[in-house]
MFS transporter
Amino acid sequence: MGLWVTVPGLLLLYFLTQILGVPAFLAGLTLLLPKLLDVVVHPLLGSLSDRQARRSGHRRGMLYWGLLLAVAWVALFTVPGGLTGTGAALWVGGCYVAGNLLFACFQVPYLTTPSDLRIDYHERTRVFTFRMVFLMLGLLGAGVAAPALVAAGGSAAYARMALLLAGVLVVSALLGLVGVRRLTERSGIRLPDDHRHSVLADVRAAWRDREFRALLLSYLCTNTTTHLFLAGVPFYARYVLHDKSFTALMMGAFLVPATLAAPIWLRVSRRIGKQRGLLLCQLAFLAGSLTLPVGGVAGPAVTAAVVVVMGAAFAGLQLLAFSMLPDAVAAAEARGAARAGAYTGVWTATEATGTAVGPYLYAAVLASAGFVSTTGDAVVAQSGTAHAALLLGFTVLPAGLMAVAWLFQRRYRLDPVAA
């Protein structure tokens, strides 16, 4: 999951605009449209997962499709020779659609598992802490290795990177399958109710849940912000710090603290509650975004320090939000509606939307300012307007989005320890 989430979010926009010569606006659409299909696909898969769980007593059947993700992954970065511009955008977009569908087949039942387990409020956070640590290791490995592997530039470097990392996708998916089976067998699961619901009815039920809706909208804005940040890192490194090799260093500074901070946020949530911890993380990420504009003047060391704080906050943003999802499901079950798969399908659809909208917003900012695309990673002079938009889109825009996320999160009242 860490590999698929990180590398396309980090490199695809740069790959399209700087290697394949796709105009920034078209590149943004290439990333946005495949993800918008997930808005339909994920709730459907969530409802199908509920039906499978009722029928077989587990959700693992859909997980096996995730093993094929490696094929779409390699194709995504292996663009046929001679394809540039619109043709390249169509190739990448088609591979992205296939990859997102296969990823969803794994992601939806996988993330539903903690909601199925017969565990309590703090145990859900503990389960997600283990998940978060390994996810962050995946994010860290991918976020550092992938930029380093493509540092030479050119489309061949991206194809080699994809081929080298494809094995990681397969092995980690197999480990996930084994882990889910063992965890559900040991803890026991709560099966969805026997009443059959249409996908639309499931979506409506999830949306009518006030607490889930507040959490969902907050996470939409949060995920949009963090993926805008990922998409902007290569541009910030190249045009603000003036060294594209800083992409890997920034990702390391972001993800190493994120990996180390996950257990800390578990302890924080036990003291002050998940809600207060999540609000604190959102404010920390917002403050960090507003500090990054000084990076070009203050230098890489100051930038790294700010990114370290943002990385630690990122761990809490992920861990606490995801551990509150099964709390919302448990509350719905207490009211007589057990639809864990449906809730998770809506959640992952929202996550996919944020994953797409973040890079799209950044691409739209670049396009509006006249950012010039190129092929083969060639150096092209950018206008002062493009430079300003590149920086503001990476700093002020994410801060504004995170402020909206904070306001939505304030409406959540389910946490028993929250004020």
Q: What stands out?
A: The two ends are 34 Å apart (CA to CA). The chain has 15 helices and no strands.
